[in-house]
Write a structure and sequence with these properties.
By secondary structure, the protein is of the alpha/beta class. The protein has helices spanning about 15-25, 80-100, 115-125, 130-140, 145-155, 195-215, 235-250, 270-275, 290-295, 305-315, 335-345, 365, 375-390, 420-430, 460-465, 470-499, and strands at about 1-5, 30, 40-45, 50-55, 65-70, 165-175, 175, 190, 220-230, 255-260, 280-285, 320-325, 350-355, 395-400, 410-415, 430-435, 440-445, 450-455. Helix 6 packs parallel to helix 7 (about 235-250) and helix 6 (about 195-215) packs parallel to helix 16 (about 470-499). The mean pLDDT is about 90. Bound molecules: iron/sulfur cluster.
Length: about 500
């Protein structure tokens, strides 16, 4: 489907295009040129403090129109832009809903963090019931998705408003044994491993500099996450050195996850070493329990290896193990996904993340022009949810990505006591993150000012190694404003103590 869009707001053309893609998939082209299958003409008027949006669709839908009114916001700033965009998208959404007879599960929402809209409603003084009603009225969300958001908001109670100086630590290891066909990360295959030592040297330098910065600025770091890539693709000795160095500089953390994603990178020696450090949570990711799919997606392990590694980790005393699965992998139908979930249920991990396959432009699947399957994906995702509930878990974080099958979602489920705070902080963006290593994106969250300063590290491994000092400088620049705020906050707290 190629749709030409005419709008008086050039800056919103892509946002209207996002609505079109909700109905026609990521393959839909939004264009301003011939040839096209249909033309969407948008007009905008303001009358007595009211915005009037009007969309008309030509081509095979000739004559279909939609008009929507909303109170005009005229602050000339961000709120005006936000409200105008929202009204336009709602109007275009209703038009395409009528044209196609379809209702996307997430309604007109195209953003990646739907929980944020729920929180916004509550910040505006609405009760949970009123917030639910508003999500339905404003965005046409289905009851199932509103229930899902509700479950997450409940699970996050007491966990998202951390003190002003709280900051999480992320360390990225951008190496994997092989590249998964759906991978869009900048991770490199570890190959002959010759980049690993120079990478670790640069990373240790960044750890040294940033731990000093964190101390001077008064950041309180208690939650850590070593991700990637696959951190367990390092040798036992390398990973041991990294964990020791991290602990020397940042101390013992209350929560520390190590993504040990590929079962083929783990053995008795490496798991025993991980147990000797204060690692509180590991992730062993099957993605699927079907060997043929594992081969097709380029993972160098079998389902049996996942089971054996999981059981070995349990026998060594790991009491918080996460597993990731992906719905709608190439060639997989409902029965195959169900088989994966049956095995996971028998293993009983402490948390489960149910992803929906997203085919990003930088993935091999995209290069191979793989066509996303649409059939049964929603049922698969729902089965993942039922399985998590049957294992005694609740949903506690969620995010959506572009190019996901049926515009669905990724959801993290966990048993009580196994919620990963880092995942919540990272998704909700209410706590700062100091991210070290290639591709890490540090976020300095200024809650009062409602802004987030981001300091991205370069993703290319060689560039990261040669420019590591620049990465440190970026973080110092982003966090220095917060440091002044933390000092003021601490002074106010100590004055209050003395009174
Ligand atoms: S394990 Fe993750 S980072 Fe590594 S190739 Fe697969 S998807 Fe990419």
């Amino acid at each position: 489907m190629r749709i030409a869009i005419e709008t008086p707001f050039e800056q919103f053309r892509n946002d209207i295009g996002d609505v079109v893609r909700l109905f026609y998939g990521e393959g839909a082209a939004v264009t301003i040129e011939e040839p096209h299958d249909a033309e969407l003409v948008h007009t905008h008027q303001t009358e007595e403090g009211t915005w009037i949006e009007h969309f008309a669709l030509s081509g095979s839908f000739d004559g279909l129109t939609m008009t929507m009114r909303g109170e005009a916001v005229t602050d000339g700033g961000l709120e005006e832009k936000r409200q105008l965009k929202r009204l336009m998208k709602r109007c275009a959404y209703q038009l395409f809903k009528q044209a196609t007879g379809r209702q996307p599960a997430w309604g007109s929402l195209t953003g990646i963090r739907p929980t944020r809209l729920y929180y916004q409603q509550m910040e505006n003084g609405k009760s949970r019931e009123e917030a639910r009603a508003a999500l339905f009225d404003l965005f046409d969300l289905s009851k199932e998705k509103i229930d899902l958001l509700d479950e997450i908001i409940t699970a996050q109670e007491g966990l998202i408003r951390r003190p002003q100086n709280a900051c999480d630590l992320y360390i990225g290891i951008p190496f994997c044994t092989t590249r998964c066909a759906y991978c869009s990360f900048s991770s490199g295959e570890i190959g002959d491993g010759k980049l690993v030592e120079p990478y670790l040297a640069a990373l240790f330098h960044e750890i040294d500099q940033c731990s000093r910065m964190a101390q001077e600025m008064g950041l309180d770091i208690r939650v850590g996450y070593i991700g990637g890539g696959t951190p367990s693709s390092l040798t036992t000795g390398q990973l041991d050195r990294l964990l020791s160095h991290m602990q020397r500089r940042f101390g013992r953390l209350e929560e520390l996850t190590v993504e040990a994603g590929r079962p083929d990178t783990l053995d008795m020696e490496k798991l025993t070493m991980l147990r000797s450090h204060p690692v509180t949570r590991i992730s062993i990711n099957p993605q699927t329990m079907n060997d043929e799919t594992l081969r097709v997606i380029g993972r160098a392990h079998t389902a049996q290896q996942t089971i054996d590694t999981y059981e070995l980790a349990r026998s060594l005393g790991f009491d918080d193990i996460n597993m990731d699965v992906i719905a709608a992998l190439p060639g997989e139908d409902y029965a195959m996904f169900s088989h994966t979930l049956d095995i996971i249920r028998s293993l009983a991990p402490d948390s489960l993340t149910v992803h929906t396959l997203a085919i990003k432009r930088s993935s091999k699947l995209h290069e191979q022009k793989y066509q996303q399957q649409e059939e049964d994906v929603a049922r698969m995702v729902e089965l993942g949810r039922e399985t998590a509930h049957a294992m005694g878990m609740q949903a506690y974080y969620l995010y959506r990505q572009k190019y996901m099958a049926q515009n669905l979602e990724n959801v993290g489920y966990a048993k009580k006591g196994s919620i990963c705070r880092y995942n919540i902080d990272n998704m909700e963006e209410t706590t700062s993150v100091l991210a070290l290593g290639a591709g890490g994106i540090s976020k300095c969250v200024m809650r009062q000012e409602e802004k987030i300063l981001r300091a991205p590290n370069i993703a290319n491994i060689e560039q990261y190694i040669s420019r590591v000092d620049e990465m440190v400088e970026r973080k110092i620049a982003a966090f220095s404003e917060k440091a002044a705020m933390i000092r003021a906050w601490k002074e106010a707290a100590s004055c209050a103590d003395q009174r």
